[in-house]
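Researcher: We're teaching a course module on how sequence relates to structure. For the next exercise, students receive a sequence and then see the predicted structure as tokens, so they can try to spot secondary structure elements on their own. Here is the exercise chain.
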Amino acid sequence: MSQAVGTLQVETDRVIVTEYRFAPGAETGFHVHGHDYVVVPLTTGTLRLVEPQGSRDAALIAGESYSRLAGVAHNVINVNNFEFRFVEVELK
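Model: And here is the predicted structure for the students to work with:
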């Protein structure tokens, strides 16, 4: 599988803002979030979350943000047949 591409947009002493682009089938690789974060989907579609307790599909809608606390552990996979994009804002 291909790797999702992250492009750092802003980093300050308080936030890190990164745009992620996922080609069809691309994934982040398993990782643990070190900060609370907000995700702003730029695309409507489905991402598969592979978590320690199993896998689930998350339907995301462009512009409908969500937040999570630090410590989330998962791999994120684009299961769509088109590029999926979102912006992640990490709160330091």
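Model: If you want an answer key for the exercise: The chain has a mean pLDDT of 98. The CA atoms of residues 32 and 73 lie 4 Å apart.
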